[in-house]
Design a protein that fits this description.
By secondary structure, this protein is α/β, with parallel strands linked by helices. The protein has two domains: about 170 residues, FAD/NAD(P)-binding domain, CATH 3.50.50; about 140 residues, D-Amino Acid Oxidase, subunit A, domain 2 (D-Amino Acid Oxidase, Chain A, domain 2, 2-Layer Sandwich), CATH 3.30.9.10. It has nine helices and 18 strands. The strands form three sheets. Strands 1, 2, 8, 9, 10, 11, 17 and 18 form an eight-stranded mixed beta sheet that branches. β14 and β15 form a beta hairpin. α1 runs parallel beside α6 and α1 packs parallel to α8. The protein starts with 5 loop residues before the first strand and ends with a helix.
Length: about 375
Amino acid sequence: MAAGHSDHYDVIVVGAGVVGLSCAWRTAERGLRVLVIERARPGAGASNVAAGMLAPVGEATWGEDRLLDLALESHRLWPRFAEELAAAAGGEIGYLDLGALHVALDRDEAAELRRRFELMRSLDLEADWARPRACRELEPGLGSVTAGVHAPHETAVDPRSLIVALAAAFEAAGGRLEVAEVTAAVLDRERFAGVRTQDGREHRARATVLAAGSWSAAEWLPAEARPSIRPVKGQILTLRGPASEPVCERIVVGERVYLVPREDGRLIVGATIEEQGFDTRITAGGVHELLREAYRALPDVAELELVEANAGLRPTTPDNLPLIGAGEVAGLLLATGHYRNGILLAPVTAERIAEMLESGHPEPVAEVAAR
């Protein structure tokens, strides 16, 4: 298509991370004509470095009841989402029903873990207190553990396999994926009518979905359309050992680290939480912290190969609730701000966005958050 020309769709999705592609796939399944625009490659942002934990019980914290409800709802959707995605994409997505073991490695950590367990119990979450012997029966490779909480229904997915599957399923459903830099919004009488890309082309649609993660408050958006999003940096490591001799069989979570095994022998170790703006440098301190805490929990990690060190930027809102629904400008929907839970919340976000797009009656972000 020549520069300056325009094309027309039912929906444009800006951003091809797990959230953006999930929204696009579920929307295309409903028969709408969907274009996804990604500035780099699918999953190039936070999705590429995520551990893929689907762990609403472990993420429960004080004062975030609405986020927990949303996380539990999405967790219930995940088995069907995974099954339908694998069928649509024609391949596996690395979805594993692992369970999780939260461990305390000294008395202070045990006291804090007990507080968290009491919270889980007060919220009727499925989790059991485990003494040291029970912890070692579940995970023989543990270090000097003093207590644990077993959450048997936590699951995980490989985000990189997930991205590949989502892109394939989206295109199989008739969607179009384009790599381009969005440089401007197209407005029609104050309504969001599409976007303009760096090559001068206009892409118009009845509705546009902003799913650009930490870049969702970009300057190309009108000021009133920019959501309150800030990036929170996370450094993460990939270790590898023999697939036949994993150092753990389930997700292992300490006070300052989590470890997520993959079927092929990889072990994901994450993740730091750093307020560093858009800095994505790998630091010696970050790597040291992760390896130190991983070794405290599972000493056998010392024998594993260090394969990768990466950093990603989590899109975060002031109250940690994701932004799902209509924004401040008509024609623009938001699917961003998922912080640490983008992979977990992808199915529920996609269902709600697709429903709004199909009906043509998007709900405001505040109303969706209050459900």
